[in-house]
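User: Run a structure prediction on this.
Assistant: Running it now.
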Amino acid sequence: MAKPSVRQPALILSGVMTLSLLLSSCNLPTGQPTADVLATSAAETVAALLTQPPPITLPPPVETDTPVPIPATDTPVPPTATEVGPSPTVGPTGCTDKATFVSDVTVPDDTNIPPGNSFVKTWRLQNSGTCAWNTNYALVFQSGNNLGGPATVPFTGQIAPGSTIDLSVTLTAPAAAGTYKGNWILRNDSGVLFGIGASANVAFWVQIVVGATPTASAEIYTAKSIQVDQNLYADLDDGSGDASSAKADFWFHAISADEKYLEPMNGALMKLYGASVPELADCKGASLSTNRIQFNGLSVGDWICYKTNEGRYGRFEVEGITSGASQTLSIDLRTWK
């Protein structure tokens, strides 16, 4: 059997003495601690700090259910590609598109062009709406004979309301003799078509004569575009859409909202010719009469031959018909001498 270690009783005695000192310190009188106590306390504090593990720094909590607020900004958010465009003839700021015909800069109506020859037609139009026209606007072929021209011609600059623009298109005369007409209109940057006239729905046109120069008997006496409102009178000699009944050649007679007629007056004669352009000889040879023409049977592009109450032959094309209870007829007339 081994002998007990000499250090073991010493360790037990040291522990008893330490416990006695701690218990006796609880009954010390209040006051300043002794230097030995302070030194012992400091040493114990340093030892405790040296033996403690370093503090653990945790990351801030992540809030996954709470939306992050977006600061206010004055910069508008751009629209998506699927955003619906403006209503017809109305711009994104509530402006309107409308044009006014000013003049034929080149190639007036019924200019004689040799067969197969190219020419440049130029119209001068005024921006009579409130939208500013830009390079996304275009001149667009609408109907009739395109004379070999393009489908669209984009604008080349900005046109402010009230300003004018010269729009040109390169065309070619057909090989066959005859009278040819092409109707053109405008398209805004939203793809909406608009034109001239009170309702901005009337086309402007180019009209040429291919072949021999017309004889003196076919000279134009009156060439105008006019509008005739229902229950008003038209004078096809002077080109007036609100003439007196004594001078009128026809009356836009409205019997009801659904029954309206063009009624010849004061000995004038008329006949619906059709969709082709009649010449002087065609109108002279047509069976003109005093029979009225039903307004609701007319279409844009139809031609009517007539003989005025002053004895002149002529023709006019239906250029536009407004809808609604109160209707307006827009015509392009030619009255020969």
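The mean pLDDT is 77.
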